[in-house]
Amino acid sequence: MSGANSSSLTPGFFILNGIPGLETAHIWISLPFYFMYIIAVVGNCGLIYLISHEEALHRPMYYFLVLLSFTDVTSCTTTVPNMLCIFWFNLKEIDFKACLAQMFFVHMLTAMESGVLMLMALDHYMAICYPLRYATILTNPVIAKAGLATFLRSVIFFMPFTFLTKSLQYCQGNFIPHTYCDHMSVAKVSCGNFKANAIYGLLAALLIGGFDMFCISVSYTMILKTVVILSSADARHKAFSTCTSHICAIVITYVPALFTIFTHRFGGQNIPHHVHIIIANLYLMLPPTLNPIVYGVKTKQIREGVVKLLFREKDVLTMK
Fold it and tell me: Residue 10: which of 160, 189, 150 has the closest Cα?
């Protein structure tokens, strides 16, 4: 086998084929992903810079947004540059260990994003349902511990992916019909029994995603109950507008993710493979691209912060 070690049946490298069946359109397909990546990097780095430099945004909600932006920009950076190399330069080889590392970071960061969205839902719950205790409960040390716990949870749950995949035997070849090293796409290349991979992957996704969605659902149920009984229409509008951007981020993240997870295991044979690959890439690209836009448009404090920052920079330039 090309690139294989015959004694261990472990390939030295994999060949990422991009999007099977659409090879002639790779250049055209790459353009929207390239522009989405630029928007994602500029938008998320801009949010991080803005929040770090604006005193008015030094609040728990925006600290969690910084964590979400960092997760987003890291997540798309683990896959998009490699994908563009496949589309533009036909550089399809990826080292076996690099493939395992990419696979781990893709899934770990996806779980991290889910966890941060859950923390943001809890933040909204505390801000709306317990406004007087909000500042005393969500202190900086609590926020730091919550972020660290979310990170460690993601690492612990998805580290076994690496060992399970590494232990498989790859005697059928080293061609992966994908643009990046997705866990199940790599496992399906093996000639061994990858049932443990499929079961563990599904359990990890359900446990983390299910727990996070349960917490988000409970938080918004309690928020809705609190908002409905508010006497002031302005207070209700303010509470709803606070949650709008976060609800959009939840939809953007979970809908394509759930589609990808379940079609891989239950409905893949009924969906053209190139459609599945494109959706899998969108599920990694949509949240990083759209989250900064959604929060920038929907959040008044961020809009005001952008205007203030621009005028401050203008004043500095004028003084020079």
Answer: 189
